[in-house]
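Side project, low priority. Logging it here so it doesn't get lost.
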Amino acid sequence: MHAIDENTGAVVISFVAERLAAVRIKKPARPADASDGHASAGDEVDCLCCGTTFYRLKANQKFCSPRCRKQSHQVADRERNPKNSSCSPSVRRTNYIALRRARDLAEMLYSMPPGERLGFMKRLVDDARGGDAALRSILTNPHLLRASPADRHLFYRRCPASYVTISQAAHAYCKKTWGTGVVRVVRGMAEEPATGVLPHEASSSYVVEEKLGLAA
């Protein structure tokens, strides 16, 4: 191996330093929607979804990750095909069927003697826990769980002063028998009661229980 004198070594070190500095310099950012017709792999662009700057792996790449690409497509699809009931007849019909079933269940509940209501509610909760997704959706529907007295159409006989929705009834039943809310119970997030004894002290809504006919 040949020895490198001091001057030659200094030149080599200077050359290497310049090359390293050049590597660290980023190329000027190119807008992701540039239309100059020269987009290519390696261009530095901003993700159209999250705004993160990245280097293209392909000339037509617009997103930094598959997750951003999927999210962007979902947002665009929701804009083209709204899923709320005011815009979608199918969603509006689904909501109508669910509301009708909720009212029918409330009518069944209040048409039976108070002594039979616990058994009826138990069957509903068991069915929702066992795989009846439509019923589970009704019992956990936030609109029905927090129904306002002003929304009289949600209540049996349109009388919120005397009755609760079937979702509120299920919530009261679960608080009384499980010691937790209906959402946790029907979604399998709560432990089953060790015994069949009804822990009345676990309930936090005496007014709802009174309307349901469960209050002592």
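Brief comment: The longest strand covers residues 44-46.
Revisit when time allows.
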